[in-house]
C-alpha cells in the first residue's frame, strides 16, 4: 500500500473531513509540546511510506502508538508542524484493538484518546470531555460543509463578495475544532446536516425595554430605512426595536424578559464567513452589514458580543481610519446596541452592531472585495487554492512573485498604523479583505474589519492626538506595553494570514518565508530614523516567538486561560546563521517572560467577567521538545 496525499478520489467524503481535523490535531500536539515525533517506518508493515511516529516525551510505548505519513523527508528535529505536512495513512495502535485499518481514517476523538495515553501531563476529565465532543462535532460539521462545497461553483473576480465569504468551508486552518459549533444559552444544538443552513439565517425583529439596553451611536436612525420596509406592530412606551438572528431568540428571552417578538423570520440574510455577521439582501438597499450575538461556541470562542466591543466600536473605527494608509479601507462600526446589565455575561446576548458595507464602493471603482481566508481554500477535487486559480498562478515562479507583491502590500498596510499610531490590527484571514482590480487582477489594497481584539499602544496613540473616551473599565484594547500589540501582529498577520496563503499556494517554506522576511526588512529600511521601528523590527524577527496554544486553551480547566507556547520564528527560516533558530529546552517550572502580565491581570481583576468569574489568567508554556541544540525547518 502506498500513502495517499491529502486528496480523495470520491468527494465529498467523511475520510477527507477526518483527515483535515486529525492533521490539525496532530500538528497541535507537536507544536504545543504535548507530544514528540520521530521519523519512523510505518507500524503496519504492509504500508510502504515514510512518516513519523507520535510518542511520549519519555519514549516510545509499544502498546499505544500514532503513526502518520508525511509529504516528504522529515528532519529529526523538525519544528512548526502544519496540517499540510502530513498525508495518509494515519494508523493507531492500542492494546485492545491492535492496529487500525490503514485504508480507514480514524475519527478525531479516537486519535485524541490514544494521544492522551501518551501525555506526560495530567488533563482534567471535564475539559477533556469537552475537547472530545468538540473534535467530533468539528469533524461531523466539516463533512457537511464539504458536501455543500461540492455543489458550489468556484468564485471569480466577477463574483459578489458574499460568494467569496461562502467559499470558506474548512474553517480555521490551524484549529482542530475550527468547524465545531456547540450551542449554549438555551439554543437548540444543530444537527451537522443543518449547520450549512447558517449561511442563510432568518432574521427576526424584536422589541425590548430601553432601560435594559445600552445604545451606541445613531442606531435607531440608521436602522429606520430597513424597518420601514416591514409592517411592524406598534411599540409600547419605552421600547426599542432591533433585529436578531432567529436562532438567538432563546438566549435573548432568557436574559431579557421584556422581549416581544414583532415579526418572526422577517427576512433571510446572507452570512459571512464568521456566520454571525450578515449581508442584507441587495434589494433592501440597506447600507450596513449586521454583526449579531450568537450563543454558540465556534472553534474555541463563545460568539456573543460584549459591551466592551459594542460601546467602543464607532470610536475605535474612526481612530483606525485615521491611522491606516491611504489605500487601506476600514469597515467602520457606526452604531450598536447591547444589554445594560452590569453582568456582561447577560448583556452580551442581545448585541447587534451596524457595520459599513463597502462592496458598493469597490464595485464603483471596478474592484472586488475578497475575504483572504477564501483565497487559501482548495475547491473540492482541486490541488490548487483559489488564489492560484483566480490569479492564474501556474508555476512556482508565478506564485513566489505574487506572494512577494502581496506580502509587501500587506506588511505596509498593517505595520504602518502599528508603527505610527500604536494601532495593531488583528489582521488574520477572516478579518482581512483584499481589494482586487477586476480588469487587471492587480491587488490595489486591503480592507479590515472586526476591531474587538485590536491592541492600541496608549502612549503612541496619545502622541498622535487620540484618546479613547468610550473604553469601558477592564477593556483589553488599550495597553501601555508595546510588545503586547506586536504579539497580536505576529500571531495574526504572520502566523495566521501569511502562513495560510503560503501553505495554500504550496510554496516550499524554505523559499516562501525568506520572501516574506525580505518585504518586512524593506518596510523597516524606510524607517531607519525611528527608534520604535528598530524595536518593532527586532521584536518581530527575534528567533523565538510566542504563539497561542489553541489546543491547550481548550484543554484548560479555566476557559479564560490565554496560553502561549515558545516557537521558532518562521521569519528566520532560510537563515544561514548557526543556532539562529535555537529554542530553549522545555522546563516544567519555567515561564516565558511576560512584561505585561501583571498589567493585564490588574485590568481584568477590575472587570465584570463575561463568564461570571473574576479573572483571566495568562499562562505561558514553553514547548516540550527535548531537542539538542538546533531547530530545523523543512516542508
TrEMBL record:
Any one Pfam family match given in the protein's UniProt record, by short name: IucA_IucC
GO biological process, one term: siderophore biosynthetic process
Domain Aerobactin siderophore biosynthesis IucA/IucC-like C-terminal: 401-557
Protein name as catalogued: Aerobactin siderophore biosynthesis IucA/IucC N-terminal domain-containing protein
Domain of life: Eukaryota
Organism: Zymoseptoria tritici (strain ST99CH_3D7)
Domain Aerobactin siderophore biosynthesis IucA/IucC N-terminal: 268-376
Any GO MF annotation of the entry: acid-amino acid ligase activity
